[in-house]
Design brief:
Layout lengths: L1 E2 L2 E6 L8 E10 L7 E10 L2 E10 L6 H11 L6 H5 L2 H15 L9 H7 L1
């Protein structure tokens, strides 16, 4: 389920993988007209996994938030297949559009590669 500032994904367990419930809330911080930070609050409930983490990413690397979530899950011992996180375009596409609007990002805006490698 998506609404601006919020994404929720729930999956029932199958024989191949356990079920989980993931919630991601986000907002931007910084002065208009170019807010500088995208702030995220990740919560995950799964068998024997409870994650409640907040992080923020600079505006030019904020689109890489899924990689940051994947790293967070790995840090908590959760091995995540790519399609688990990256396969929900119906939810993430409007999230990207909302984030782009909130950050006032323009196509072709420069990305600091050092920051991308460090934070992403």
């Amino acid at each position: 389920m998506f609404r601006p500032g919020h994404v929720e994904i729930s999956r029932l367990p199958t024989e191949a993988r356990p079920g989980y419930h993931l919630t991601l809330d986000y907002h931007v911080e910084g002065a208009e007209p170019r807010p500088e930070w995208a702030c995220f609050h990740l919560r995950v409930e799964a068998p024997q996994v409870h994650i409640d983490e907040q992080f923020r990413m600079h505006r030019d690397v904020a689109y890489n938030f899924l990689q940051r979530i994947r790293r967070c899950l790995r840090d908590h011992g959760v091995q995540v297949r790519q399609d688990i996180l990256f396969g929900f375009h119906a939810l993430y596409d409007p999230l990207y559009a909302d984030l782009r609007q909130q950050l006032h990002l323009q196509p072709g805006e420069a990305v600091d590669l050092d920051r991308f490698l460090r934070e992403g």
